[in-house]
Amino acid sequence: ETGVTQTPRHLVMGMTNKKSLKCEQHLGHNAMYWYKQSAKKPLELMFVYSLEERVENNSVPSRFSPECPNSSHLFLHLHTLQPEDSALYLCASSQDRTRLAGGFNEQFFGPGTRLTVL
Amino acid sequence: GQQLNQSPQSMFIQEGEDVSMNCTSSSIFNTWLWYKQDPGEGPVLLIALYKAGELTSNGRLTAQFGITRKDSFLNISASIPSDVGIYFCAGRPLSGGGADGLTFGKGTHLIIQP
Fold first, then answer.
1. CA gap B57, A82 in Å, rounded
2. pLDDT band at B3 (very low <50, low <70, confident <90, very high)
3. Which residues of chain A are within 8 Å of residue B101 when distances are taken between CB atoms?
4. What is the DSSP string of B53-96?
5. A103 versus B54: which is more confidently predicted?
6. A8 CB neighbour count, 10 Å cutoff
7. Which of A79, B44, B81, B114 has minimal CB crowding within 10 Å?
8. With contact defined as beta carbons under 8 Å apart, do B59 and B82 qualify?
9. B91 at the A interface (CB within 8 A)?
10. pLDDT band at B24 (very low <50, low <70, confident <90, very high)
11. Of the candidates A103, A101, A76, A97, the residue with the CA atom closest to the CA atom of residue A87
12. What pLDDT score does A100 carry?
């Protein structure tokens, strides 16, 4: 149990569906992340939220829309996805410290949502 | 963008053997992390390194932050069956801030033969 939970664990959706992935962290952290893990590729950072503000968006297609209503919850809204979007989507959290304080960034991951787009 | 070269891609070893894997970067990193991922789960942090030359142990695992700040290695001594999994190195570049995403290697798949 890492303190980061994700639901659902598995999701199968058609290209015209709209669905949402949910992440919740119970570690008191103030930064949350979405990563995409595809077969035989490194984990790809998608979005970063620090103190509920989006601080990084790595050229992710607009069919992925993140939402961070508070420091404990993070969502990834999905619509009109493509088959190549099938992957394991991982959420992570960390305690954001400023560069002056020492920017340590140990990220703790949830178990992921295995997404299949038909 | 930043890239990490992790090797080897996979390792087939006998139980009881020692394991060594490494990660290199073309640019300087100020943080190196090593994670392990089991099937169907997210990566779990094993060791975190913050200073050049730092050598840190966690049980049978030992990792070092290279002096040049462009590499790191992970050693596992006396491997056991539960060591099977995929090991990832991850780092944060020198220019990174507090909440930057990590750059990951492609992983080393450790397989222990009976």
1. 43
2. confident
3. 33, 35, 45, 48, 56, 58
4. T-EEEETTEEEEE-TTSSEEEEEE-S--GGG-EEEEEEEEETT-
5. B54
6. 13
7. B114
8. no
9. no
10. very high
11. A76
12. 43
Joined together, the tokens standing for residue B76 give 């596992």
What values do phi and psi take at B83, rounded to 5? -75, -10
Q: pLDDT (tens digit, 9 = 90+) per residue, A77-109?
A: 999 999 999 999 999 998 876 544 444 568 899
A42 — pLDDT class (breaks 50, 70, 90): confident
Closest CA to B34 of B70, B76, B88: B88
Closest C-alpha among A81, A55, A86, A85 to residue A68: A55
Which tokens in the block code for residue A41?
Answer: 């590729």
Q: What angle do CA A68, A69, A74 make, to 5 degrees?
A: 40
Lookup: tokens for A57: 């968006």
User: How many Å apart are CA B66 and CA B54, to the nearest integer?
Assistant: 8
One-character DSSP codes across A79-114 = ES--GGG-EEEEEEEE----TTT------EE---EE
Residues on chain A touching B98 (C-beta within 8 angstroms): 31, 50, 96-99, 101, 103, 105
